[in-house]
Design brief:
Layout lengths: L1 H35 L3 H10 L2 H7 L1 H20 L9 H42 L2
Helix pairs in contact: 1-2, 1-3, 1-4, 1-5, 4-5
Amino acid sequence: MAVKTSNLKESSVTVFSLFTTTGTLVCCAIPIIFVTLGMGATVAAMTSAFPFLITLSQHKIWLFAFSAVMLLISGWLMFRPGRACPIDADLARACNTAFKWNKRIYWASVVIWSIGFIAAYVLLPVRMWLDI
């Protein structure tokens, strides 16, 4: 029973990490990319249709920090030492399938978080440094 609880905890933390990292993409990366591409009117329409984007952008440091912590916890739960699947063939197959999907979701979350971080904190200083 401990294995099922562990897999459930691991899966739920991984999925929650996906949602928090998607929040960083929605709050910061997409509006910055739209403005960079000259679609400022699209960003204005987005913020009028979804006013919570302004609140997320105002607290983006906390959003990025929280999602990074969630990614670290999720990564530790998945790749910690001593993690094992049960001996029973059916349970082992289910455990391995869950682990495979958890890894996919985790790495997708890491990519999403990285895109958001680069768009929110790296692109503008690099652009100013290159004088573009």
